[in-house]
Amino acid sequence: MSEFTLWDILRNLLLATRWTIVLSLVSFVGGSLVGALLLLLRIGYNKAGRVFARGYIELFQGTPLLMQLFLAFFGLGLFGIDVPAWLAAGLALILWTAAFLAEIWRGCVEAIAKGQWEASSSLGMGYIQQMRYVILPQALKIAVPPTVGFSVQVVKGTALTSIIGFVELSKAGTVVTNATFEPFTVYGLVALIYFCLCWPLSKSSQILERKLNVAHRNH
User: Fold this and answer.
1) In a domain, 35, yes or no
2) Is residue 1 assigned to a domain?
3) Range list of H helices, the chain
4) How high is the pLDDT of residue 210?
């Protein structure tokens, strides 16, 4: 008979959930900053910048996140650099998130009518001014729903960090299961917690998308 009560199991999982939330926030914020830079390079006039951004995006979108985590954790170890699991997890998720956000935002920028570029150019605006005052404010409205929707993938992506030893919700589920021998109860609660984290984000994305479509039709 297990000495762990249901509350003991849930309490340990909730404690680990804090790290899932922190890692998700760090990954999303860091990925947004790197993704914004990639976006500017991807749609800019500098050919080398466009080639670099495109190669970066294709590399991180075309390879499994699990492999990227392994490389971040074990790769630097080949050069004698000891990388903590939390640092490797954060770095890999930031770089992975940036690639997807940059591509999402590029699609939103390209959705802006060409006439907006031409009109702003006729007013004597430079590229930076066009982006700042005309293009990005309009693209931002389009980008909000898919960006919020992608945050769900970031939260679920944190589960893979357990493979390199980072103790988040998924890893804690394995540890608690080994201690209690109650896998159905433990992983049932893990799934429920993930649902509670992801469902509000997914629902928010759907609501924002509907509001955007209504506003666009009314306009």
Assistant:
1) yes
2) no
3) 6-43, 47-61, 65-70, 85-110, 114-122, 127-129, 136-157, 169-180, 183-218
4) 81
Q: Could you tell me if residue 106 is inside a domain?
A: yes
Report yes or no on 115 lying in a domain. Answer: yes
The count of domains in the chain is 1
Domain assignment of residue 21, given as a range: 6-218
Distance in angstroms (rounded) separating the CA atoms of residues 125 and 105: 22
Please check whether residue 93 is in contact with residue 151, taking contact to mean a CB–CB distance below 8 angstroms: no
Indicate left, alpha or beta for 124 from its phi (over 0: left) and psi (-120 to 50: alpha): left
- φ/ψ of 62, rounded to 5, equals -95, 0
* Residue 78: CA count within 13 A, CB half-sphere: 5
* Angle at CA of residue 23, ends 181 and 81, nearest 5°: 95
Q: How is residue 86 written in tokens?
A: 């939390």
Q: Residue 35 has which token pair? A: 């993704």
Look up the pTM and report it.
Answer: 0.90
Nearest to 152 by CA among 189, 184, 195: 195
Amino acid, single-letter form, for residue 159: A
Report the CATH number at residue 111: 1.10.3720.10
Rounded Cα gap, residues 218 and 208, in angstroms: 15
The pLDDT value given to residue 76: 76
